[in-house]
TrEMBL record:
A GO term from the CC aspect: acetolactate synthase complex
InterPro entries referenced in this protein's UniProt entry, alphabetically: DHS-like_NAD/FAD-binding_dom, Myo_inos_IolD, THDP-binding, Thiamin_PyroP_enz_cen_dom, Thiamin_PyroP_enz_TPP-bd_dom, TPP_enz, TPP_enzyme_TPP-bd
CDD domains for the chain: TPP_PYR_POX_like
Residues in Thiamine pyrophosphate enzyme central domain copies: 221-353
Thiamine pyrophosphate enzyme N-terminal TPP-binding domain segment(s): 44-131
UniProt-recorded name of the protein: 3D-(3,5/4)-trihydroxycyclohexane-1,2-dione hydrolase
Lineage: Bacteria, Bacillati, Actinomycetota, Actinomycetes, Pseudonocardiales
Signal peptide: none
Length: 615
């Protein structure tokens, strides 16, 4: 067997380059199309030197924060439907720990990213080294052990030959529809530089095709029997439908059997907005139309969703007696809440289920309800988008962006109030053209994730919508994108603080405190304000301030042109109304105090006695 003498870092990079992936369209692409790196103590010489050998085969992009790079990799994975994986490397101490939040985002959203933090010396001879955190009772523990809680697969490479065993597992997790998520390989800096005779076969090109497991015939038959007995079935489409490439199959399934369709946050834009069976998005950030259908459904067929609390309205959106049937590649998700579980690829299971439901359709009056309910929700959104307030609302901002976007464009957001506006109010014509990171709801993803999505997408324009709080928390990757030449548009809505969490705080009876700047402690009678337009311009972005709704229309149209022409982000800055929101009317369970002195008793939405005043 032919062997190549390489350092661990060189072997790892060569292996990364050799891995290939198959897209939903059947095209062959690199599994690892790019790397994000901030070099420092622990990765600059080993892995850094190895990456420098192949600048064209594994392009390296430099970010400004490790968290931002990790979020960009997550945005890249989402934009490629988990068919391609960004690689992120960091130094050994604070650089590594800065990546942990991004790992949490990828883990919560089931997105594959490969994290390669440097680590302390495996040999320990020079300990304690710069940036090392010493554990008095366990010298094997380093800061990288923090990744264990937010990794699907974790390993620390302490000997070169360990790569032979761990790299196949790395590829398995990153391409498995059930296990997909972040993989962390901690790389001690001395081991990165050690040589070993690696078998040449390790570096042969390998195409990783995402498996499509077929359903168990008995489980499928039970699901078919349950559907045939249903009087008011409802189809819920989640992110797994997107990653399976099953949107077309799901819509055809609904059409063949007359089943109303709703979408989760991760499943948004799988169904054309105006489809007659589309009831709208489901849950807290969804629509009253879908929630009304869910309340009356006697069977819920949930496909490719982990049934998060915002989707289920903390498990109040469905009728208590409704039968839950799930199709999911992950058994962990399929069996939730005692569901009749069909463990399978979404596209495969829907095709097989169609075969055993020949001749069956839901009742016509139930099928027609979807369009009726959604038309009411559409009228509500139209009213919210109509001009009339002194400051533009989030709903109006979304309306402008929606109107001027094309079906090929991609819209993105994460935290605060914007997820409710995009999930509930967006009207999409394309398929899988929205990324709302609401698994971890990470402030700052709106800009870093947009950078990754802009890198990944070959058509259309990426537009990110965010508030001033997210902008201030993590804006550095605007410069990364501007420097690298990856254009997108960011619409930054300034409502003077953490407005949506203030809504939760005050809506549940608490006093305003520490969210809006007006309610924050300051040593100034007139505290300073951020000049967001000047700041974004200083980061290399083209900036378009807007004063009102019509100004926003002009600014966004110009920003779209400028982003592509100048190959850098274009930022639209506008002041928005701080307390106007799109509401679905759904319940959300939060931890409110059982007793607040001075407030009268009443009962909450689940009949429990509490002692605060809630709106």
């Amino acid at each position: 067997m032919t062997a190549l003498r390489l350092t661990v870092a060189q072997a790892l990079v060569r292996w990364l380059i050799a891995q290939r992936s198959e897209t939903l369209a059947g095209d062959e692409v690199p599994l690892f199309p790019c790397a994000f790196a901030i070099f420092g103590h622990g990765n600059v010489l080993g892995l850094g030197s190895a990456l420098a050998e192949y600048p064209d085969r594994l392009p390296v992009w430099r970010g400004q924060t490790e968290q931002g790079m990790g979020l960009a990799a997550a945005g890249y994975a989402k934009a490629t439907h988990r068919r391609q994986v960004g690689v992120v490397t960091s130094s050994i101490g604070p650089g590594a720990l800065n990546l942990v939040t991004a790992a949490g985002v990828a883990h919560a959203n089931r997105l594959p990213v490969l994290l390669l933090p440097g680590d302390t010396f495996a040999g320990r001879a020079p300990d304690p080294v710069l940036q090392q955190v010493e554990h008095f009772g366990d010298p094997t523990t380093t800061v990288n052990d923090a990744f264990r809680a937010v990794s699907r697969y974790f390993d620390r490479i302490t000997r070169p030959e360990q790569l032979l065993a761990t790299l196949p597992q790395v590829a398995r997790v990153l391409t498995d529809p059930a296990d997909a998520g972040p993989v962390t390989l901690a790389l001690p800096q001395d081991v990165q530089a050690e040589t070993f005779d690696f078998p040449e076969a390790l570096f042969e090109p390998r195409v990783h095709r995402v498996p499509r497991p077929r359903p168990d015939e008995r489980a499928l038959a039970e699901a078919g029997d349950a559907l045939r007995k249903a009087r008011r079935p409802l189809l819920v489409l989640g992110g797994g439908v997107r990653y399976s490439g099953a949107a077309g199959r799901a819509v055809a399934f609904a059409e063949r059997h007359g089943i109303p369709v709703t979408e989760t946050t991760a499943g948004r834009t799988l169904v054309p907005h105006d489809h007659p069976l589309h009831a709208g998005p489901l849950g807290v950030t969804g629509s009253s139309s879908a929630n009304a259908m869910a309340a009356e459904a006697d069977l819920v067929l949930a496909v490719g969703t982990r049934l998060q609390d915002f989707t289920t309205a903390s498990w109040t959106v469905f009728a208590p007696e409704a039968r839950l049937v799930t199709i999911n590649a992950a058994r962990f998700d399929a069996v939730k809440h005692g569901a009749l579980a069909v463990v399978s690829d979404a596209d495969t299971a829907l095709a097989d289920l169609t075969g055993i439901l020949v001749g069956w359709r839901a009742r016509e009056e139930w099928s027609r309800r979807a369009a009726v309910e959604r038309s009411r929700w559409d009228a509500h959104i139209d009213a919210l988008r109509a001009p009339g307030t002194d400051l533009p609302t989030y709903a109006q901002v979304v309306g402008v962006v929606n109107e001027l976007s094309t079906p090929e464009d991609y819209v993105l957001t994460s935290s605060g109030g914007m997820p409710g506006e995009l999930v509930g109010g967006w009207r999409g014509d394309g398929v899988s053209t929205m990324d709302v990171e609401y698994g971890f709801s990470c402030m700052g993803y709106e800009l870093a994730g947009a950078w990754g999505a802009a890198m990944a997408r070959g058509e259309g324009l990426v537009t990110s919508l965010l508030g001033d709080g997210s902008y201030l928390m993590l804006n550095s990757e605007l410069f990364s994108a501007a420097f690298a030449g990856h254009p997108f548009v960011a619409v930054m809505c300034d409502n003077d603080g953490y407005a949506v969490i203030a809504r939760l705080q005050q809506g549940q009876g608490a006093e305003p405190f520490n969210n809006f700047y007006a309610d924050c402690r300051s040593g100034h009678a007139e505290p300073p304000r951020v000049d967001f337009a000047a700041h974004a311009a200083s980061l290399g972005c083209t900036v378009f301030p807007a004063e009102d709704l019509e100004g926003l229309r002009v600014a966004y149209a110009e920003a779209r042109k400028a982003a592509g022409a100048r190959r850098r982000p274009a930022v639209v800055v506008i002041r928005t109304h701080p307390t106007s929101w799109t509401e679905s009317g759904a319940w959300w369970e939060v931890g409110v105090p059982e007793h607040v002195p001075g407030y009268p008793e009443h009962r909450d939405g689940k009949g429990r006695q509490v002692r605060y005043t809630s709106s």
